[in-house]
């Protein structure tokens, strides 16, 4: 279980960083959904909407990048478990009323540890991809509001953002 307190922690009895031992935990269905957004100039959003970004279809590339990011989470976040994800869904939606692209990612698996970090990573990577593809026309874009909005499964139970 890692840690001297008997609970789940990333530190052993000597205070050294370790990957949490989840081998004693039961496998359960686990789902997590995260959301975020990237706010931009109205003209940048119009370019995305109209397919006018020189680097290509921003939403399709960002969707694929988010899926790939979820799958590579343990390479990016120290001490994350490598997981065999059953599914990763990334949706991007234009929100012209806020000059934003809204991003939502849902990750699922049956396993011993949750997929919150994978969902959060998927949103982050998708948002960074939108930024990368549009930075030539709008360096003032703002990535934000990345948060967990839903979690189901596991010992700690569910979570729904308010």
Automatic annotation (TrEMBL):
An example Gene Ontology molecular-function term: cyclic pyranopterin monophosphate synthase activity
Superkingdom as given in the UniProt entry: Bacteria
UniProt: substrate binding residues: 79-81, 117-118
Enzyme Commission code: 4.6.1.17
Record keywords, A-Z: Lyase, Molybdenum cofactor biosynthesis
UniProt GO BP: Mo-molybdopterin cofactor biosynthetic process
Molybdopterin cofactor biosynthesis C (MoaC) domain boundaries: 19-154
Catalytic activity: (8S)-3',8-cyclo-7,8-dihydroguanosine 5'-triphosphate = cyclic pyranopterin phosphate + diphosphate
Pathway: Cofactor biosynthesis; molybdopterin biosynthesis
InterPro entries: MoaC, MoaC_bact/euk, MoaC_sf, MoCo_biosynth_MoaA/MoaC, Mopterin_CF_biosynth-C_dom
CDD domains (alphabetical): MoaC_PE
Catalytic residues of the enzyme: 132
UniProt family annotation: Belongs to the MoaC family.
Described purpose of this protein according to its UniProt entry: Catalyzes the conversion of (8S)-3',8-cyclo-7,8-dihydroguanosine 5'-triphosphate to cyclic pyranopterin monophosphate (cPMP).
Subunit-level organization: Homohexamer; trimer of dimers.
Protein name: Cyclic pyranopterin monophosphate synthase
């Amino acid at each position: 279980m890692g840690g001297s307190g008997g609970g789940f922690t990333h530190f052993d009895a000597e205070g050294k960083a370790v990957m949490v031992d989840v081998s004693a935990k039961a496998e359960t269905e686990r789902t997590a959904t995260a959301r975020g957004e990237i706010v931009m100039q109205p003209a940048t959003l119009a370019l995305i909407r109209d397919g006018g970004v020189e680097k290509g279809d921003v939403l399709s590339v960002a969707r694929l990048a988010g899926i790939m990011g979820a799958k590579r989470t343990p390479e990016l976040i120290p001490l994350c478990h490598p997981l065999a994800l059953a599914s990763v869904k990334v949706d991007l939606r234009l929100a012209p009323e806020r000059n934003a692209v809204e991003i939502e990612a849902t990750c699922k698996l049956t396993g011993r540890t949750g997929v919150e970090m994978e969902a959060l990573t998927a949103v982050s990577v998708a948002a960074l991809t939108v930024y990368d593809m549009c930075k030539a026309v709008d360096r003032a874009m703002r990535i934000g509001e990345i948060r967990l909005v839903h979690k189901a499964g596991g010992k700690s139970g569910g979570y729904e953002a308010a």
